[in-house]
Design a protein that fits this description.
By secondary structure, this protein is of the alpha+beta class. Helix content is 21%, strand content 28%. Among the domains are: 89 residues, Hotdog Thioesterase (Thiol Ester Dehydrase, Chain A, Roll); 35 residues, no CATH class. A six-stranded antiparallel β-sheet has the order 1-2-4-5-6-3. A hairpin with a 6-residue loop joins strand 5 and strand 6. The longest helix has 13 residues. The radius of gyration is 16 Å and the shape is globular. The termini are far apart. Bound molecules: octanoyl-coenzyme A. Octanoyl-coenzyme A (CO8) binds next to helix 1, strand 3 and strand 6.
């Protein structure tokens, strides 16, 4: 089992000087992203804000389409919310990174209609590896912890997406006349 704890010699994560100020809503990076995009009717529609240092907060409202058991959120959906929240940390560091490994603890059940308050931070950087952790609390930032996760993100080049994504979506994203949207679809800071 490979560790999700930064190894000895890992550096602290660096907030990019041009990172959005704490409190700024980051907005969706890609309209069709299942985590944050407005173009996904059943998506999570996560709203993420920059925090201090390399940290973010996010809110996810659990809707009936997110059920696993009757009236309860599906665990995989909750993991997606954690993944998306930790994934947006790269935005504050101005790096492109994808999830390599993610481990979730499900601490308590999360009913439909819950507003899950998520927070995530980068815990260290080692070469291309970015170590992160996150938690989700029920009802507010002081509410009971429902889920916790640790994840390892790995920095990649933009070709990770352009070489591997389905051609139809890659072409559509690259043809977007809006330069900012075009860049953000590939997680590149404009
Ligand atoms: C705002 C943005 C929101 C984003 C949405 C949320 C994020 C996502 O869900 S991204 C989608 C899910 N992730 C993916 O599809 C990634 C698929 N995997 C891959 O493409 C590749 O395996 C990739 C890029 C992660 C790593 O491959 P590669 O670039 O060849 O790296 P590689 O050289 O093997 O490994 C680099 C380092 O990472 C480590 N590593 C790689 N994979 C893992 C893993 N699964 N677990 C632990 N360590 C790993 C290696 O051991 C190596 O460590 P070291 O430098 O100490 O030797």
């Amino acid at each position: 089992m490979r560790s999700l704890t930064p190894p000895p010699g890992a550096a602290a994560a660096d907030r990019h000087p041009d990172a959005p100020a704490p409190g700024t809503l980051l907005g969706s990076h890609y309209r069709h992203c299942f985590g944050c995009g407005s173009g996904q009717p059943h998506g999570l529609h996560l709203e993420t804000r920059a925090g201090e240092g390399v940290s973010v907060t996010a809110e996810f409202t659990v809707r009936p389409v997110h059920q696993g058991a009757p009236g309860l959120a599906h665990g995989g959906v909750l993991t997606t919310a954690l993944d998306e929240t930790m994934g947006s940390l790269g935005w504050l560091m101005h790096v492109i990174a994808v999830t390599g490994r993610l481990e979730t603890d499900f601490v308590r059940p999360v009913p439909v209609d819950t507003v899950l308050h998520l927070s995530a931070r980068a815990t260290g950087v080692h070469g291309r590896k970015i170590f992160t952790s996150a938690e989700g609390r029920i009802g507010g930032s002081g509410g009971p912890v429902a889920v916790r996760a640790e994840a390892l993100f790995i920095q990649v080049k933009v070709e990770h997406f352009t070489d591997n994504g389905r051609d139809e979506e890659i072409q559509a994203a690259m043809a977007d006349p809006d330069q900012v949207r075009r860049a953000r679809a590939f997680e590149v800071n404009p």
